Amino acid sequence: MKTNQSLRLVKVAMFALVTACMGASLANAQTVAGKFDLPFEVRWGQAVLPAGNYSFTLSSTAGMPGYTVMVRGENRTASIIASTIIGDNAAGKSALIVERHGEKGTVRSLRLAEAGLVVYYPAAKAERPVLAQAPALVQQLPILMASR
User: Fold this and answer.
1) If exposure means fewest CB atoms within 10 Å of the residue's CB, which of 49, 95, 101, 127 is most exposed?
2) pTM score of the predicted model
3) Is 56 a member of any domain?
4) Tens of pLDDT along 125-143?
5) Parallel, antiparallel, or unpaired: how do β-strands 41-44 and 104-112 relate?
């Protein structure tokens, strides 16, 4: 009989611990919003965004890997998942860092100085550089952060 009571007490204690941890994770969720203009077409993860005005929301949940960026434009909505390297070196102004390829570009990072974040996006396998290739033009597109 004592064994059942001890087991029940352990179950209740574990449930309380798990609930407390989940509550802390939800409390540490981070959301950042802003706007940017694309003067040319870009590939961002699997999404292709035409030139235009966009707004975005970057969100994460503590304990979960990576960030999700929800991008909304005039005629396009995309959800981009960054499960790669996430840094905290956000020196400089908030910007979308784009590697140019002629009239198109590829997003390489999203720097959010106000949030102290830099989210990096790797090159797709098809885009990996060839040994003998001209240097890429890197352009910083300014981001207007939403005020809280």
Assistant:
1) 127
2) 0.68
3) yes
4) 665 555 555 556 888 888 8
5) parallel
